[in-house]
Please model this.
Amino acid sequence: MLLKIGMVLAAIPLSVMALVAATGVVVVDVQEKGPGGHHLIVPVPLVLAQAAAGFVPEEKTHVDLGEAQRYLPVAEEMVRALGECPDGELVRVEERDQKVRIAKVGTTLVIHVTEETKGEDVSVTVPLSMASTVLREARRGSLNAATLVSTLRGARLTTLADVRNGDQHVRVTVW
Amino acid sequence: MKRYVPMALALAVALVPAPGVKAEGKTAWIHVRVEEPGKESKVSVNIPLPVAEAALALAPETVASGGCIHLGSKGRKLSLVDLRRAWKELRATGDAEIVSVEDRDQTVKIDRLGDKVRIHVEGRAKAESINVEIPTTAVDALLSGEGETFNLRGALAEIRNLRGDIVRVDDRDSKVRIWIDEGI
Model:
């Protein structure tokens, strides 16, 4: 009897872990530099984030892009075409103290900005599927937060953002 | 046995094609380079041609030109209808100088050499030069619009098959180069 109860009790956390693993987890990792710097790791199950995003009030999801609205279908079509193109560097800007690089890598757009004088280094990875969803939603005039979070499921094992400056290192990864 | 596992995994990863990469055929890219040595600035933009075409697929069929092309700095104008008529005649003639405008500030020359139309602008005051080379077929397509409009989409469809330099601008402060090839 005790064995059965134990199995049932063990099955609950195991099921939750399996659910979280199956649906994905966003991990926010903040590391402060220097002695005594804090190291904070916050794992957020995507299923939980999606549920929370569902509570965003309807009026807050509306976007008004004005004149830019009519270019959204063009942008959407460009993102679709980009997905079918080979990988490569799309943009590189080099100035005295700043470098910007945008490249297509697999099914993602990688944006890398370096400011040498400030010691800042920012790297952002945007899954093309996410960009498509954002553009499609924006075309309808609203951005549904839950839908946006759900697109992260297609970006698993991706570091969405990696920000380094003199004081800290922040990393957001989807597992 | 265990030491072969990482090797096997590495081999497997190497053999899996990266998502989004097409093995067949080469994709043409439009490249734009802008260099401003004085500002220590370099800008490089590489756009796969299918992406540009996708954008153009949703653009208007024709682009209004305002009816006139401005030549030189003194407001000289050439009607698009006149240009179309002149091009039709020159197309049949062969290699020739189409336009030559010289004033105090700059010289503008447009000529045809083989299957290319060349536009050359030479500025005197700023020591600048602009060179544009367009295939005659692209000019045909560009001027295939009705009335006072350019057929931009038609022209770009022709440029698809072009490889090499299209535009070069050199002046005292900056250098611009636009070309098409099949790689980054």
In short: The helical segments of chain A are 2-23, 46-53, 72-83, 128-139, 145-151. The beta strands of chain A are 25-32, 39-45, 88-94, 98-105, 108-115, 120-127, 158-164, 168-174. The two ends of chain A are 38 Å apart (CA to CA). Chain A has five helices and eight strands.
